[in-house]
Amino acid sequence: MYWKQMLKTLYLGLYLSVFQAISQPKKVEIIKFEHLQKLINHTSDTTLIVHFWATWCRPCVEELPSLENLSKEYSTKKIRFLMVSMDFPKDLQQKVIPFVAKNNIKSEVVLLDEPDYNAWIDEVDKDWSGTIPATLLVNLTMRKRVFFEGQVNMEHFLEELKKMIPTAGAN
Amino acid sequence: MKMKKIMKKIYILSSVAVLLMGLAVVFAFKNEPPTIIDKGYGIGDIVADFKLKSTSGGVTSMAENHSAKGYIIVFTCNHCPFSKAYESRIMALDKKYASQGYPVLAINPNDPTAYEEDSFENMQAVAKSKGYTFEYLQDESQNVARAFGAARTPSAYVVKREGDKFIMQYIGGIDDNTQDANGVTKRYVEDAVNSLLVGKPVVVNITKSVGCAIKWKGV
């Protein structure tokens, strides 16, 4: 009983520290997959949208503004957008941060520094081939998890997102 | 008489119900979002030969190089930063394995109208300036990339010749570190070819990797 409580507190602390670290304006944290995995597997009443992109990926750059707009539209809901850049860490200052500033991206942006893709791609989704953009919607409280490879079909994406909007009073 | 009427009614009603159920199924499937599942070759599949325009002039096929025991086939291109990051490693693979019977065949599947850098002229320019020792081919129809199930660049495949056929042996990334060649710990393609050269099966025959999505024509 006691250790469960401890674990919960630990997770909460971890969650909060991660949240704090990556919500600082114009700062893009470099994270490891372990970090991301904990977020994905964390049971929360907030729906998490993890979007994989990169500044060098043209379809990603085309799609990002529409997702950014959605994040604004849904900002009052318990929905959290996390934009995960697949750029190389060496390009953080020169490419990623200027891109985020230029495109006025307010969502949380992190850079995933995990070069052995084969070691973790399946952990995000078994059906993910590795192509980006890719987007994962997850809400463990609702036991829902939907994955999109390539640019999302907006109609289908919104349909899934609407099913995953946490209602007030839900735990 | 009455019984018969009731039976008839039941019969009609149930027919209508079955019909409606059928329609519901049809509609349910209609509403299903279209799936773009074209997985391409799997391990052990026979790989169809191709004839593609080469930057070295003329067309190249797998069959024409009789001394090849197989090929390291890499879908790559000029514009993609991940392809660029692997360029020298692809060149090194050819230097190391062409003489042992596994030359590199590089194939650019991108629509050049979307990426000017990926035009045939620019492929020729890069092959020349970098001194490619391997064939750099253009998959103009994109049919070869489709047959392989390639989705991004770079994507590597190893095929082995068995008689007059080529059999798929490895599908995936080149190694486990795109950004830093010095940080590589797992050389997937090399390990695959090394196994084949000593007549052993490939241990890790499928890996996942990240790269630039292939730009398909008309999409």
How would you characterize this protein structure?
- The complex is a heterodimer of chains A (171) and B (219).
- About 3% of the residues of chain A have low confidence.
- Chain A is α/β, with parallel strands linked by helices.
- Chain A is built from six helices and six strands.
- In chain A, 34% of the residues are buried.
- Chain A has one domain: Glutaredoxin (3-Layer(aba) Sandwich), CATH 3.40.30.
- Chain A is 41% helix and 20% strand.
- With 219 residues, chain B is an alpha+beta fold.
- Chain B folds into two domains: 32 residues; 162 residues, 3-Layer(aba) Sandwich (Glutaredoxin).
- In chain B, 34% of the residues lie in helices and 18% in strands.
- Chain B contains five helices and nine strands; from the N terminus they run αβββαβαβαβββαβ.
- In chain B, the strands form two sheets. Chain B has a seven-stranded mixed sheet with strand order 2-1-5-4-3-7-8, covered by helices on one side. Chain B has a two-stranded antiparallel ribbon with strand order 6-9.
- Chain B is elongated.
- About 6% of the residues of chain B have low confidence.
- The interface between A and B is medium-sized, with 23 and 26 residues.
Set down the secondary structure blueprint.
The complex is a heterodimer of chains A (171) and B (219).
Chain A: H1 2-22, E1 29-31, H2 33-40, E2 47-53, H3 58-73, E3 79-85, H4 92-102, E4 108-112, H5 121-124, E5 134-139, E6 144-149, H6 154-163
Chain B: H1 2-31, E1 52-54, E2 59-60, E3 70-75, H2 81-97, E4 104-108, H3 120-130, E5 135-138, H4 143-148, E6 152-153, E7 155-162, E8 165-172, H5 188-197, E9 212-213
Parallel strand pairs in B: 3-4, 4-5
Antiparallel strand pairs in B: 1-2, 1-5, 3-7, 6-9, 7-8
